[in-house]
C-alpha cells in the first residue's frame, strides 16, 4: 500500500503537538523542547517516560503493566519506554483528537549515524511516524555536561519545524535533527545530511561490583568517520545543524533485486 504524503502544514497555530523524549519527564532538554513547541502552538501535550530511557531504542513494554499518571493538564508520565509513551498517547490519551505533530527530545547528546537504531529519542518520533503522524526527533551535541548549548536548539528548532511542516513529507519517514555543540551565534546554519557511521559498543568496560562479581558497562566511544562528506556526523562536527530524513522501511532495494534474481532463477 502506498501512503499519501503528509499534506503541507503552513500554520501550526492551534495544531496539536505531542512531546516525548527518552531522558525522562524531568529532563532539561524536554523543557527546551516545550519552549520551542509553545512558540509554535498553544496546544502542547507532554507524555514522557517517568525514568531515563536512553538506549531503549524502539522497545515496547509487554511484560508489566503501564500506568499513565496525569501530573498536570495535558502532561503525563508513563512507567515505560518512549515508544510506549507515544503509542499510549496517540491510541489512548489523545484518541479523540490525535496530534498533528510529534516532537521528541531534546536529547542530551547526539543521535548520529547508527545511534538512531539505539535511540529512544528517535524511536519516539518513529512511533509517531508508524502511527501516521509527522514526527521530528531533536538531539543536542555536548562535551561539557555543565555547559550544554540548549540555546542553539532554541534558536534553530522552531524554524526547522515550521519549514519541514510547510513542505510536508512522505509518511513512514521521520526527521532526525542534531544541534552542534557551540553557542547559537557560532552555529553555521542547517545542513541536510545522510546518516554517517557512529557505532557504539567498541569499548566495553569490565569491572567488579562491591561483592566481587564481574560486570560489563557499555561505554561511550563510537567507531565511525566524522570526516565523511555529506554525513550527519560531519555536519555537526563542522558546526551545522544536521537534518536527516529517516525511512522506517529498512529494505535495501539493490540487494533485494540481486536476491530476487538469485532466488527466481532456480
Ligand atoms: Mn537520551
Cross-sheet strand order for the largest sheet? 3-4-2-1-5-6-7-13-8
Number of structural domains: 1
Q: Superfamily at the CATH H level?
A: Survival protein SurE-like phosphatase/nucleotidase
Helix-residue proportion = 25-40%
Please state the structural category: alpha/beta
Give the biggest beta sheet: 9 strands, mixed
Sequence of secondary-structure elements: EHEEEHEHHEHEEEEEEHEH
Strand coverage percent: 25-35%
CATH topology type: Stationary-phase Survival Protein Sure Homolog, Chain: A
Return the average pLDDT rounded to an integer.
95
Name the shape in a single word: globular
Annotation field: number of helices: 7
Query: What oligomeric state is this?
Result: single chain
Per CATH, the class reads: Alpha Beta
Distance between the termini: 29 Å
Question: Any overview of this molecule?
Answer:
The protein has seven helices and 13 strands. The chain has 266 residues and is of the alpha/beta class. It has a nine-stranded mixed sheet with strand order 3-4-2-1-5-6-7-13-8, sandwiched between helices. A two-stranded antiparallel ribbon has the order 9-12. Strands 10-11 form a two-stranded antiparallel ribbon. A hairpin with a 5-residue loop joins strand 10 (204-208) and strand 11. The longest helix has 18 residues, at 150-167. The chain is globular. The relative contact order is 0.15. Bound molecules: manganese (II) ion.
The gist of it:
The protein has 266 residues and is an alpha/beta fold. The protein has helices at residues 28-40, 82-93, 115-118, 120-130, 150-167, 232-237, 253-264, and strands at residues 16-20, 43-49, 69-72, 75-78, 101-108, 134-140, 173-179, 189-192, 198-200, 204-208, 214-218, 222-224, 240-247. Helix 1 packs across helix 5 (150-167) and helix 2 runs parallel beside helix 4.
